[in-house]
Amino acid sequence: MNRINPLHIIILLIVIIFFIFFQLSGLKSELREAQESYKKSELLAKELLAYKKFYGDKKRIKASLHKILSQRSLQKAALQIEQKKSGMLIRSKAIDLYALNSLLSKIFNGGYPVKVLQIKRVDATHASLKLEITW
Fold first, then answer.
1. 3-class secondary structure per residue, the chain
2. Residue-by-residue pLDDT tens, the chain, 135 positions
3. Mind listing the pLDDT tens digit for each residue in 85-119?
4. Are residues 83 and 68 both part of a single domain?
5. Is 80 found in the same domain as 23?
6. Has this prediction a pTM greater than 0.70?
7. Structural domain tally of the chain?
8. Are residues 65 and 48 in the same domain?
């Protein structure tokens, strides 16, 4: 009675080995899911960094806005430009629709972060404008 049957020990070891392999396969699947999640997060971080470089470059935004606003068609529009610490406010009480179209197409195609855009029609050929661009 004092002796342990070696067959019981072998069966117990086999059961423990199967249990360990079962746990290991579950951990492998969790590891694959974590790796896929990490890759997705890494791609998202790279995209966000690219957006931050593009939209967060104050010097580029300021220089290109001044270039747009110094165009001949917009000089006749009597734009009131107000520089702020966090952006630029552009106003006009009566801007020609051609100049407005030109300005907005350049702003929207240039990818500027627009915070406020208000356009009201004054008459058939003019509109009032309030445009705030942040950086």
1. CCCCCHHHHHHHHHHHHHHHHHHHHHHHHHHHHHHHHHHHHHHHHHHHHHHHHHHCCHHHHHHHHHHHHCCHHHHCCCCEEEECCCEEEEEEEEEEHHHHHHHHHHHHHHCCCEEEEEEEECCCCEEEEEEEEEC
2. 578 888 988 999 999 999 999 999 889 999 999 999 999 999 999 999 988 877 777 788 888 888 888 888 777 777 888 888 888 888 888 888 888 888 888 888 887 888 888 999 888 888 888 989 887
3. 888 888 888 888 888 888 888 888 887 888 888 99
4. yes
5. no
6. no
7. 2
8. no
Q: Which of 55, 74, 90 is the last residue of a domain?
A: 55
Give the dihedral sign, CA 99/101/104/110.
negative
Enclosing domain of residue 124 = 58-134
